[in-house]
Amino acid sequence: MRWKSGDTVVHSRDGICTVVDIREMSLTDEPQEYYILQPVYERGSKLYIPIEKEALFLRPPVTEAEIREYVKKLPETNVKWIGDEKERQTMIAEVRKTGSSETLLGLISLFYKKRNEQHEQGKKFHSSDEQFLKDIETRVNREFAYVLGIDPGEVPAYIRDTLSA
After folding, report:
1. Measured distance CA(140)–CA(132) in Å, rounded
2. Per residue in 53-107, pLDDT tens?
3. Residues 130, 114: contact at Cβ < 8 Å?
4. How many CA atoms lie within 13 A of 116 on its CB side?
5. What's the pLDDT score for residue 1?
6. Would you tell me how many other CB atoms lie within 10 Å of the CB of residue 117?
7. Beta strand 58-59 pairing with 32-39
8. 86 conformational bin, left if phi > 0, alpha if psi -120 to 50, beta if neither
9. Which of 7, 9, 100, 130 counts the most CB atoms within 10 A of its CB?
10. Nearest C-alpha neighbor of 129 from the set 147, 144, 116, 120
11. b/e for 46-78, b at 16 or more Cβ within 10 A?
């Protein structure tokens, strides 16, 4: 897909961004065309994505209808907890790079359940799992907020209200 200046995209690591320019630059040995992105919620930074690698890093934002569908399917998510920490860290690394909003939302739900289980048993939730949860919550909340036209802090309430409706 060819993006144009002004388009909104989701970067696999940095979340919701605006394409602010497309320009040929020499950031490596040979000049190539780059998308220059500005994260919507982090105004000071810019990302430079080679156009030839856009499929690895960029996708369109979800739609409002997709958000409603993902949230309604949440109670029946088939995402399973991976008990082995190394396997879980491998899965986390992969999801950070390629996870869809639907997958991330399912993982948020799973990690909340697991954290609550561990607290009930008097155990601590692993700090790397807590960091992953915080990271994906931020990404999902920002994308959903942008699409829904609300503040990222309002997304959890939107999800709760949608689930209870």
Report:
1. 12
2. 888 889 999 999 999 999 988 866 667 888 888 898 888 888 877 778 888 888 8
3. no
4. 6
5. 63
6. 12
7. unpaired
8. alpha
9. 9
10. 116
11. ebebeeeebeebbeebbeeeebeebbeebeebe
Is 48 in contact with 25 (CB distance < 8 Å)? yes
Find tokens 């949608």 and name the residue. 162
The whole-angstrom separation of Cα 107 and Cα 133 is: 8
Cα–Cα separations (whole angstroms), residue 89 to 95, 99, 135: 10, 14, 14
Mean pLDDT along residues 13-29: 89
Can you name the residues that pair with 32 across neighbouring β-strands?
25
8 A C-beta contact, residue 70 and residue 105: yes
CA dist., res. 46 & res. 35, Å (int): 10
Question: 42 — phi, psi (to 5°)?
Answer: -135, 85
Phi then psi for residue 23, to 5 deg, are: -150, 150
Q: Cβ distance 47 to 20 under 8 Å?
A: no
- Cα distance between residue 28 and residue 162, in whole Å: 47
**Distances from the Cα of 73 to the Cα of 103, 115, 161, 162, angstroms:** 11, 21, 14, 11
pTM: 0.87
